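Reagents: none. Just compute today. Flavoprotein involved in K+ transport.
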Amino acid sequence: MTSPPRHVPVAIVGGGQAGLSVSYHLKERGIDHLVFEKETAAHTWATQRWDTFCLVTPNWQCDLPGHRYDGPDPDGFMKKDEIVAYLKAFVAKVKPPIREGVAVTRVERREDGLFAVQTSEGDYTAQAVVVASGGYHTPIIPRMAEKLPSTVTQIHSNQYRTPTQLPEGEVLVVGSGQSGAQIAEDLHLAGRRVHLAVGDAPRCARFYRGRDVVTWLADMGYYSMTVDDHPLRDGVRDNTNHYVTGRDGGRDIDLRRFATEGMALYGALEDYEAGSLRFRDTLKRSLDQADRTYNSINAAIDKHIAENGIEAPAQAHYTPVWEPEEPVTHLTLDGSGITGIVWCIGFTPDFRWLDASVFNGAGRPKHKRGVTAEDGVYFIGLPWLNTWGSGRFGAVGRDAEYIVQVIQTRLGAERIALKYAV
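Predicted 3D structure written out:
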């Protein structure tokens, strides 16, 4: 005989920092819930980051609920092992009611208004479902990868750990967002000959006029700006993050300087045909645009300093240290020395398990600060859910508190309605 599904008022799908933050605030309000995590709590940071990975934002921005960074280096950048330790300490504080190793396979609305939550360990019902699984689910690897010879080792950025896992020879890194730029630097510093297919990611300075740029932007109110206040509105959610690094105390990533040191730069990779890699003639445009963003951020800081009479050392704007000559649009694979490729072109979301009318045509959730038009369905931990820090340690806790307040109000209304119905 099949057991009836177990009921829980709130089901949280995902046990990373976002789901754990929701659990923290639910526990604070005495609201029963369960966290479902198909792996282990906060596992991504330990299992899907390279060995030299570190934060690109200062440690002082790490402000999970009841767990603000209080270590000895607030202006530094935690390394991978330190991040994992920080999160393990957060798990120990929250003590979430979590079902590790349990995957949620389907969520759908029942006729009685509850959600049917199917999992790998059995069925549940819930009044509210919080999707805390992030938006980086399926690694993007283009179809051209299927045409490359088997002699070339191919991995995605989420599989990259160390230069030594790739065979001897030269390496092509495809994509210059945060992961691509930092992985290219990691390989470059290890003495590997790197070929980098440069995309349209912007860049920013690490330090400018005596302070970390993040600190200046915080003072300027950038991190408190909501998506509704941003000039791009919802469009900002599609923006690529600026590349910069916290490695070795923090520094710029300047692809032009890498070129002067032997890294080969190309435009966006377009295809592989007849033994040849084909690149678009976009390298100069991409580098110039990244530098314009870099200098425009610094100019905004200059304006803030001037308007507020702040004493800060003068600093010139960036001028290019290298310019591409004739564009290289074709590269013969056999003659290139390339034996490995790291695909750093992102991920696509996969919410197929959630049967709810809360998605746009691209399969991305539609919401207002994580609250969807379908009563009882919420999202947390997505980039620009509400502010720049929504997908990071800095603001996910505030987003979680807001969502839990909405949940508490709605659950309370349901109890009142049930009382009068009886």
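Residues 396-421 form the longest helix (26 residues).
Action item: order primers for follow-up constructs.
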